[in-house]
Design brief:
It is built from twelve helices and no strands. The chain is mostly helical and 293 residues long.
């Protein structure tokens, strides 16, 4: 006889949550959230079809066309080496947004696993993990990422390592707090009493209640991750020339800000629009998944 069939009548598998169809309807009625979804979908499509829409090689140098303003041939003008800014922005979407997505996936995986283990087992395991988290959180996160990326050497991969090494602690602490609360619920205690294995309890009864809040937190934090990647590349610790990364493009355009402002405006605008879209989506998901609204 399975645990489900022996469960007392009326005892739920998990905490009451908002049904997904209702959550999707709420999200669809939120115009700002839909705007964020549309903008992000457009950016992702541009990244996928970059070879078709870029029109120029993003690293091809053409000194004869350097610092040229926007026109029919170069939609956003050219930089100091005559490279198409539009082509570099489109191809740079793969680097900037792709790195941010990989970083967030790793942060979520490590944070959820470590936080669940810490909160679920408690005792000395929880003490050891949380003391390690406290040590990492005692340092300013950006300074610690700068130190890690500086020691490993300037590259986008090392920036990714630094962000993941520092950022997972926040998710681990949040997940651990939710697990501590959820494991005291009646349906979890009933599963223990019926002899359910610990792994089944964690996966079936606890994790489903953790995923939604963590997804909302991740969507709101994606903008910060993207800004951190662009900032570190701007400082010279991330993407290196001639990689078409948005932060690196801003750094290369800095000496020409007054004479050719378009070289900085378009990369900065791309970062702004992408971060704003993630923030709008995160706010919409938070409202849509809140069962008390």
């Amino acid at each position: 006889m399975t645990i489900e069939s022996r469960r007392p009548v009326g005892l739920p598998d998990q905490e009451p949550t908002l049904p997904m169809p209702t959550a999707w309807r709420r999200l669809a009625r939120d115009r700002l959230a839909l705007l964020g979804v549309i903008v992000l979908a457009t950016i992702v499509v541009l990244a996928v079809v970059a070879p078709l829409v870029a029109r120029h090689d993003p690293v091809e140098i053409n000194p004869a066309n350097k610092l040229q303003g926007p026109d029919a041939e170069y939609l956003m003008g050219t930089d100091n080496l005559g490279r198409s800014i539009w082509a570099r922005l489109v191809w740079g979407t793969r680097l900037t947004l792709g790195t941010a997505t990989i970083a967030m996936a790793l942060l979520l995986f490590i944070g959820v696993v470590v936080g669940t283990i810490s909160g679920f087992y408690g005792g000395w395991i929880d003490d050891v993990i949380m003391r390690g988290v406290d040590i990492v959180l005692a340092f300013p996160s950006l300074i610690l990422v700068l130190a890690i990326a500086g020691m490993l050497g300037p590259s986008l991969r090392n920036v990714l390592i630094g962000l993941v090494a520092v950022g997972w602690t926040t998710y681990a602490r949040v997940v651990r707090g939710m697990v501590l609360s959820i494991k005291e619920r009646e349906y979890v205690e009933a599963a223990w009493a019926l002899g359910a294995p610990p792994l089944r309890i964690a996966v079936r009864h606890i994790l489903p209640n953790v995923i939604s809040p963590v997804v909302v937190l991740a969507s709101l934090d994606m903008g910060n991750i993207l800004l951190s990647i662009a900032a570190l590349s701007f400082l010279g610790l991330g993407a290196q020339a001639p990689e078409p990364e948005w932060g690196r493009m801003l750094s290369d355009a800095r000496p020409f800000m007054q004479t050719s402002p378009h070289t900085m405006i378009f990369p900065g605008l791309a970062i702004f629009v992408c971060v704003m879209a993630f923030n709008l989506l995160g706010d919409g998901l938070r409202d849509a998944l809140d069962p008390q609204r």
